[in-house]
Structures
1.
Amino acid sequence: MSRRRERAFWRGASQEDRYEYLVDSPYALDEIRQFHEREERVLIELLQYHVEQKKDIAFIEVGSGPGRIIRRIVQLILENPSTWGEHLKFIVGVDFEFEMIRRAIESLIQRERKIRNWTMRGTAHEVSEHIKTSVKEVKKNVWKRIFFIDANVEKPYLRTEGITPIIGIMFGTLGNIRRMDQVLSRVGDLCWPNGEALIVVFNREDYHTGVERYNQLARREFEPLRGTVWDDVKGEFTSPQGFYSRWFFYDEFKELLQAYFQKDFETTPLGKSGFFSIVKPKPTPRRVLANVVRGKKNEHYFLQLRCPNCANRIEDGTLPLHKSSELECVGRQKHRFSVKEYMGFRIPLLEVE
C-alpha cells in the first residue's frame, strides 16, 4: 500500500478498523502473525484429538475479537464434513464488544469485505469455491452451530450438557482482564466434567517485544496504546486510555492455573514471546453433584446461558435463541437481558438493563 493511500485510510478509520489492520490483516507485524500461526496449530491439534476420539465438541472462545479463530474452525468443518463436521457441534464466540462480534459475523458471510486497502474473503464464499458447492448450502451446514455472546468477558458463564467443551483463551486475552480469578473459576465450571481449556499468555521475560510492539501500534494512531508504560514490578502494561496487559513468568503462570485446574499439566513455550497450557477442571463436590449421567439414546445436546451476576439459569436462554428478545434469569433478583439480531444471528447481551 502506498503511503499516500495509507494516510487517507487513517484519517477516516475507526479504532476497530485500525485494530484489525494492525493485528488481524496481511499488514500485521510479522511477530504477531507468527504468534497467531503457532497458537492456531496448538488449538487445531487439541480439537483434532477429540474429533479422532469421536467425541462431540463445543468450542467456546473467550475474547473472540473479529473472528480470526472462528473463521479458521468453520473452514475446517466445511472442508471435513465427515469428521470435523460430524463432531464439532457448537462454536461460540464470547466478546465484550459488540463491534468486534459484528465484524466477526461480517468476515464469516460477506463475499468481500474491503477494509482500508486489503480484502478479506468471507469464509462461506471462500470455502464454497473450494469445495464446489453453493454458498447457501455452506451456510445451511454450519450456521446453525455458530453463536456469539456479547458479555462481560471477566465473567463468562455457559452451561454445556452432553458434550465435551473445549475453551480457548488465546493471544494473551487472559492478561487483559484485571479480575482473572473470576474468569478462571468460570472456565473451570465450563470445562466440567470432561472438557479442557487452552490458555495462552505472553512471556514476561520477553517484555521488550511488547514495548516495541505497543510503541509501533501507538505510532500508527491506535489510540488505546498511546502513552503505554511498562511496570516491571507488576509485570503490566497500562495506558492513560485504559489499556491493560499483564505478562507472566513461567512459574507465575503455572502457579496461577494450579489454583483452578488439575495440576498434571504442562506449560509450553509458544515461540519466545509466550506460553500455553492445556488444562482440565478440578473435581469438586458441587460439580460432582451437578453432573447428570445420561444414557446414549437419551443424550440431549444444548448450551444453556447462565446469569453472569448470580449464576442462575436464564429463562429461554438456550442457544440458539428463538422465543424472545427479552430474557430474565430465574434468580431472586431476576436480572434482565436483551437480544440483538444482526445478519441472522441472535446475540444475547448479557448486561443488566
Note: The chain has twelve helices and 18 strands.
2.
Amino acid sequence: MHHTHDDFLNAIVAQPADRTLRLVFADWLDEHDDRRGELIRIEEEMRTLPVFADRFWELKPRRNELRTLVGSEWCERMRYGTECEPVFRHGIPDGWRERWRLIREFTERWYHIPMVDVGGRQKELENAETRLKRKFPPSVGEWIAFVHDVHEAPNSTGELRPAHVQSLSGNVALSLQFSDYQDAHSAVSFADLHLPDPPVYWYQWDENDVWVQSGPNAESVTVFALRQVINHTDGAGGEFVAEVDQLPDLYRHLTRTFHSHVKFGNREWDETENLFVEVEPIPGQSGRFYLYVRAAASIRKEQIPEFLWGYARLSHSRSGIFERKP
C-alpha cells in the first residue's frame, strides 16, 4: 500500500512498465492538488496514441509546459522525456500531413530537437516562394519549415542538417538536397509542383551542362524526408552495422523482443525503447543484408536484447554500449 509521494515514486522506479500504477499515482496527486497528476495522465494518454494523430499534437504543448513546471529531476525518475519510445508502432500513414508529424516526432526523439506541429514557418515559406517565384505544395512547404527548424536548433550538427531549397539553373526542378556522393541533386520537377506530395528525382549535369532527370529517388517528398532522418540517425548510445544472410533467425528474435515493425520500400524497421533496427538489402548481393542497430543516449545495458550481442560480434564498427561485451 502506498501512502506517500515517495512510496509511489519508489514503486514506479522499481516497476517502470506498470502503467496502472502510474494512473493510481495520478489519482493520488489529484487528491492532493498536485499538477503532476495532470502530467501523468497526459503522458500516459500520449504514449497510446499514434504520433501522427490530431489528439497527440493537441496534448503535446501542455505536456511540454507541465514538464518544465515540475522539473527535469522528477520527470527523469518517471522516465518522461528520457526514454526514446517507438515512433512506428502504428505504422506509416499515407497522408502528407500525418507523415510529416511522424518525421517531426522521430527527429525530436532521436536528435533532441524540439519540433512543433506541421503548418509552421509561414514567413520563411513565403520568403522562399517569393525568392524562387514558385508556389509550393504542402509537403515541399513542410520540408522548408523542417530545414529551418533543424538549422536553428542549438544542438543540430552533422549530416542531419539538410540544405535549403534552390532552383536548378534552367528552371527545371526544385532542389531539396545535393549529394556529394552521387554528384546529383534530389529535386522535385517543376511539372510536379501541383501535387501535394510530389515525387523526388535525381538531377545531374549532362555533357552540355544542362540539368537532366537521371532517375527516381523517392516516390514522394515525405518518403525522401523520412529516409533522410533515418539514414543520418546518430546512435548516441552506441551503434553497429553487420552483414547477415539468415533473416528467418533474425526476424524470429525481433518479433519476440521488439514492439513495432514496419516495411518501407526495400527496408524494414523495428523499434523498442531506445533501440532502432534497420534491415536493408546489400546492393548486388542477392540474399545478403545490412543490419543497422542504433541505441539512444539513454540506453541501459539491461535494455539490450541478448541476441543482439551475437550480431554485434559480426561487426567491425561497434561503438558505445555495444563495445561492452566481447
Note: The CA atoms of residues 137 and 193 lie 6 Å apart.
